[in-house]
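Study this:
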Amino acid sequence: MAVNKSKISAGFIVVGVLAVFFGTVLVFVGPIIIDDQVVKNTIIDPKNNLSYTMWKDLPVPFFMSVYFFHVLNPQEILKGEKPMVEQRGPYVYRKQCQKENITFHPNSTVSYREYRRYFFEPSMSVGNESDVITIPNMLVLGAAVILKDLPFSVRMLISSTFKVFKEGPFLTKTVGELMWGYDSKLVNFLNKYLPDMLPSTGKFGIFAEFNNSNTGLFTIHTGRDDIKNVHKVDSWNGLTELSYWRTPQSNMINGTAGQLWPPFMTKESTLSFYSPDACRSLELVYQRPGVMNGIPLYRFVAPKTMFANGIDYPPNEGFCPCRQSGLLNVSSCRYNSPVFISHPHFFNADPVLLDYVLGLHPSEEEHGLFIDIHPLTGVPLNVSIRLQLNLYMKSILGFTETGKISEVVMPMLWFEENGYIDGPVLTTFHTNLVILPGVMKYMQYISIALGLVNTVVGILVYYKVKRSSNRAAASPFFENSWATSTGQGKGSRGSETQEKSMTYSEKDM
């Protein structure tokens, strides 16, 4: 029985030591295995089915919500009064993106064009595309600012042309017409005689050039040579830098294409991406950690300096000529039209901008942009990009359409592009990147704990068996000693009896 217990104790100890060894190895090797799998599945490669499909077709719901600033007092504005606006919307469009003309290159880059299409979603919208909205007429008021330095007589002639084509300072059109285009005799005239003056050759609409279009030819790194470069832009339309701005730093094309980022992000990381619509690279900074459906995330937001002017933030000097902080002048890449981009409702902008327009109420919750990133993989979990389109307008002598308009940066609309991982993609992502690494993490500690328990149990059993063996070995000695002493006692008592008997016999004799 003692031999069997010894074998059992030895078995416990061996199993325990092996379990502790296995768990300790997992502590050091486990993260390496996980990182290796992340790298393997992050590289842009058609063999990586899940990640390649996510990159190629964006299989998650993406929406664009548009809010118009309906002008309540157009006639009063022409008399010099403050504009008064009322937010209308959202008018929600489902965005469909698909990469085409995908070409892989020997230098670990891949080129593609991403096409985007928009489909109106009535059930998600507050209103319909048939709703009527009044906004400033970009063709008239924008042209007045662009052409303000022409001779007075030429300005008068252009103003007369506006009247001939019945173009006034404000437009009252349906949402659908403002979004995707409306018939304009002036636009048709300009396209016929000045074909390169307008961005659109057909109907004129704010988003006319967005629908059924592509964002240009992107060439990005696949990450095969260096995972730190995966998704980063190598060139756009064959350019490695822009020519819109005044300094080399402002013209740099930095970061990714704005959909995925390199893995292994930290709180010190920044989210850089190039936006063709904003005509520049943008950079978001870390704000806080969080959790979405059990998946850890880092939230990145726009810093207050993103649209600051060159006086408040000297590195932005290259994006000037500037006005108040909070405005980005994009006229250089928008046919010189006096268009400015900002955060919605002039959030994070110079407060003086709010004094010029009535009806704006900025808040971070509703108007701040953010991207929630899974830091291990660089995959966005929740995205909300919010930007506002503004028109700079003022009274220009010779253009009677401008009346006595006070100089103002006038909000026209703001839009939000948002999307989040959901459905089967979320389930797969959660399983592969949360559950399995979590199981591996707990396995290593469970293995170490069980190993220690087995080792302790084995040692206790071993000492118990050893003590039993020692006792068993000591028992025969005590038994023999007892028997000897007992025999000697009996012998002395027998002699005594014999002696006594002999004494009594002698007396009798």
Remarks:
- The CA atoms of residues 290 and 297 lie 5 Å apart.
- The chain has a mean pLDDT of 85.
